[in-house]
Amino acid sequence: MPRYASPAGPLPHTATRAMMIFGVNPMRGAIVRLLSRHSEGMTSGAIHRELNATYQTVFRHLQELEAAGAVSSDAGEKRQGQRVIYVVDSDAVRAALAGYEDYLLEN
Predict the structure, then answer these.
(1) What is the spatial distance between Cα 85 and Cα 43, in angstroms, rounded to a whole number?
(2) How do residues 60-90 score in pLDDT, each as one tens digit?
(3) pLDDT at 50
(4) 90-98 long-range CB contacts below 8 Å, 24 or more apart?
(5) Is residue 31 over pLDDT 50?
(6) Is position 36 within any domain?
(7) What sequence ranges are listed for the domain HTH arsR-type (predicted)?
(8) Computed from CA positions of residues 39, 42, 46, 50, in that sequence, does the dihedral angle turn out positive or negative?
């Protein structure tokens, strides 16, 4: 069973219930939520400090979210030594949620 890092603050009951039902990673949800509140974007360091999580955990989730298209960055192929700004793609997140809902409820 995977071990999940959790955000420091409490989640609303409805979000907690949905995460339990669908096995959603709470840290990944916290990153998407945080980025959605910061339309100008944030660095991985700022995200890890805000969520009180390890840098490695946040960076790994950002990589996976970016690969899935839910998050984009201003970095090109070479990221070493750069200050990378991550921004949530709200349309991609909404489309993913709608697609999952359609699948679950056979719409």
Answers:
(1) 5
(2) 999 999 999 999 998 866 666 568 999 999 9
(3) 95
(4) 90/36, 92/68, 93/32, 93/36, 96/68, 96/70
(5) yes
(6) yes
(7) 21-102
(8) positive
Q: Which residue type occupies 58?
A: V
Per-residue pLDDT, 79:
62
Q: What is the CATH number of the domain that holds 92?
A: 1.10.10.10
- Structurally, the chain folds into a number of domains equal to 1
pTM across the whole model: 0.81
50 burial level (CB within 10 Å; 0-12, 13-18, 19+): middle
Picking from 91, 59, 51, the residue whose alpha carbon sits closest to that of residue 75 is: 59
Residue in 94, 33, 53 with CA at minimum distance from that of residue 44: 53
